Amino acid sequence: xxxxxKESRKRVFIRTYGCQxxxxxxxxxxxxxxxxxxxxxxxxxxxxxxxxxxxHIREKASEKVYSELGRLRDVKVERRRDGADLMIAVAGCVxxxxxxxxARRQPAVDxxxxxxxxxxxxxxxxxxxxxxxxxxxxxxxxxxxxxxxEFPPESKFDHLPAPAGVRAGSAFLSIQEGCDxxxxxxxxxxxxxxxxxxxxxxxxxxARALVAAGAIELTLLGQNVNAYHGEALDGSTWSLxxxxxxxxxxxxxxxxxxxxxxxxxxxxxxxxxHGEVPQLMPYLHLPVQSGSDRILxxxxxxxxxxxxxxxxxxxxxxxxxxxxxxxxIVGFPGESDAxxxxxxxxIDEVGFAAAFSFKYSRRPGTPGAALADQIPESVKAARxxxxxxxxxxxxxxxxxxxxxxxxxxxxxxxxxKPGQILGKSPWLQSVYVEGPASLIGSxxxxxxxxxxxxxxxxxxxxxxxxAA
Length: 468
Ligand code: 5AD
Ligand code: SF4
Known about the structure:
Layout: H1 3-8, E1 10-16, H2 20-33, E2 38-40, E3 49-54, H3 59-81, E4 87-91, H4 92-105, E5 111-113, H5 121-136, E6 146-148, E7 170-174, E8 176-177, H6 188-191, E9 196-197, H7 200-212, E10 217-221, E11 229-231, E12 237-239, H8 240-247, E13 255-259, H9 268-276, E14 283-285, H10 293-298, H11 305-318, E15 323-330, H12 337-350, E16 354-359, H13 377-402, E17 406-414, E18 420-424, E19 430-434, E20 443-451, E21 455-460
Parallel strand pairs: 1-2, 1-3, 3-4, 4-5, 5-6, 7-10, 10-13, 14-15, 15-16, 19-21
Antiparallel strand pairs: 8-9, 11-12, 17-18, 17-20, 18-19, 20-21
Helix pairs in contact: 8-9, 12-13
The chain binds 5'-deoxyadenosine and iron/sulfur cluster.
Subcellular location: Cytoplasm
Catalytic activity: N(6)-dimethylallyladenosine(37) in tRNA + (sulfur carrier)-SH + AH2 + 2 S-adenosyl-L-methionine = 2-methylsulfanyl-N(6)-dimethylallyladenosine(37) in tRNA + (sulfur carrier)-H + 5'-deoxyadenosine + L-methionine + A + S-adenosyl-L-homocysteine + 2 H(+)
Pfam families: Radical_SAM (PF04055), TRAM (PF01938), UPF0004 (PF00919)
């Protein structure tokens, strides 16, 4: 590349908050921007365009965005002083939920784009650049940036370029979006919209392209991924189990994962697939939120604790070594000590290998926010601490059980110390070993030698390396 060409290259810095769906979306935004000449940058200071791909799930997550925007405004002001500019875009769920509010609170924002509209980024960017140039020339324009928070009738998936998001042998693949469940604490049905499954053929095509680009692991994503019901070429409807089986036939693909599931959509076929599809990893993230029937009802989860218990039994019948992970919320309005004890008891009975747990966060516009009997912060904090202590103990026990085993590890990145590499076991545990960086992106056999709270130490078993 000549110096001139190098200089004309534009840079985009994308910061991702929240879930894996956002990680996937960020990759796709990079894909959309690449043909416009945008290469990825490691910092806002070196970028011409900054995209914050935001999360609205809890108050803390969305407030972070505003403080980051304050910092970016300062960079922009400095840039303008030098006669240049910095374009600022807010994407994702905060953009969807608070579009106008963002522009009002932070006028330095040039673009607000919702999760269903980012395939239109090139047009939005052109429009925003035009406006910015006029402003720099001293024109006064009404309104702030450019806003697109529509749920356009065309699917963004039909308008996105081929994916380039394979990192160290692993890639996300979005197959379903949105949610119709309306849990009373959750903003997702409002920010991501109604449930939508991508057609099976288009998912399969993308899966093959990702494998051809070097992926040996695919994680299928959706807010309600096991509610997947994609149209197939012959007009029939494929379930997630059917799709997983078809993806399992792609040559060279070694691992399949999917997230996030809902207990109500865990059908027989999917449970059976866990025992039959060798690539399907023995790990399932199945959020239960609470162990109290009364609270589950108030959350509008559509199932009680018994259904969850039965599901776990049936899954473990098919796949005895299945590692279970879940999400928990403490301090939902009206949660009594007895309700909380019921959650602790459920955790005790089931045994989790990993978990995410949160204090209930009151989200404007959700039915939960209007409920009487909101729980004081101090009570939430005490319950969360007790719950996390129990879950941490279970995670450590789960890790300990694996010590002494030799397992395949997919290496993803360098470890914390020089000479170390870090990867994932089939049960999604972090495993670090002394090993060459050349193994990153591939699977090697590792003997697990020591368990820690959230990781395991291991050593590569050379003779098995090829067989793993
Ligand atoms: N407060 C706390 N946690 C929440 N979650 C979703 N909405 C809220 C909220 N208002 C948690 C749920 C969900 C996970 C992604 O985030 O546990 O499964
Ligand atoms: Fe939110 Fe409930 Fe839908 Fe999950 S199932 S995305 S928690 S509304």
